[in-house]
Design goal:
Blueprint (H helix, E strand, L loop, with lengths): L2 H4 L11 E8 L4 H20 L6 E7 L5 E8 L2 H5 L1 H5 L3 H6 L1 H4 L10 E9 L18 E8 L3 H22 L2 E10 L5 E8 L2 H13 L1 H7 L2 H4 L6 E9 L6
Length: 247
């Protein structure tokens, strides 16, 4: 029997997903109600029909530009996200269900503005991870964006995650939802990632444990990652999922 036959099969690493993260900026009252109905009854089901799943929909609980709704869309191919709007325009079920939002008149718009970023998953965390099945309705999420002063520093921060930061999060008990390197969007170079918790009180405990994790202490003590401030600004949001969120 040849060496090739004796060799153990090598499983290919999971392909890196792509993510679109949309922010729907709203005014309180009519716009919030209209947008929620559009997302839950029209957009999320239509995206699922395009193979975009699971779709996360989150309200900003703590952070700037509230009220805002964030929509997270994962896909295996970037083209699936880039062509989604054109394909939705051919979906009669979507157009009918979303008509009150899609056809809102200019003098009574459905929203203030939509902002969007396109990301590719980190090599060390190539696929979105949903919260455990035991996660209750009280679950909360933390959306963090790290801006870097240069491309070199940005790459070094991504490397830091791939060199042990995931392990520190795992040791501390975080739900690690996704890590995305932003390729199209505002405030480049930057990265965005999402963590989850059963409650805000649990979040505080997890961050304390993270700060004490040996993996984190080793990374922050390494000259490779501490030679200068490789993160120049951090944006941090606390989000709660909509009732119809799939994450």
């Amino acid at each position: 029997m040849g060496a090739a036959a004796l060799a153990a099969p090598v499983s290919a690493a999971p392909a890196r997903q792509y993510y679109e993260l949309r922010q729907y900026r709203l005014q309180s009252g009519r716009q919030s109600k209209l947008t929620n109905e559009f997302l839950g009854k029209a957009l999320v089901p239509a995206l699922n029909r395009l193979g975009i799943s699971p779709v996360g929909v989150f309200h900003v609980s703590i952070g700037p530009l509230s009220p805002s709704i964030y929509v997270l869309m994962p896909a295996a191919e970037a083209a699936t996200l880039v062509t989604a709007e054109a394909r939705l325009g051919q979906d009669k079920q979507y157009l009918e269900a979303g008509a009150p939002f899609l056809e809102a008149p200019a003098d009574s718009p459905a929203l203030v503005r939509i902002e969007s970023s396109l990301m590719i998953a980190f090599e060390g965390h190539p696929q979105l991870t949903r919260p455990p099945d035991s996660a209750g309705k009280s679950r909360v999420f933390e959306l963090r964006t790290y801006e870097s002063p240069s491309d070199r520093d940005h790459r070094r921060k991504v490397e830091m995650f791939n060199s042990g930061e995931y392990a520190a999060f795992a040791r501390a008990g975080f739900w690690q939802i996704f890590y995305g390197d932003v390729v199209v969007g505002a405030r480049l170079p930057c990265l965005t990632y999402m963590l989850g918790f059963g409650s805000l009180a649990e979040r505080d405990d997890r961050w304390k444990a993270f700060g004490a994790a040996p993996e984190w202490k080793q990374l922050t003590g390494s000259q490779r990652f501490s030679f200068e401030s490789i993160v120049s600004n951090v944006t941090n949001l606390i989000l709660t999922p909509a009732d119809y969120s799939q994450i």
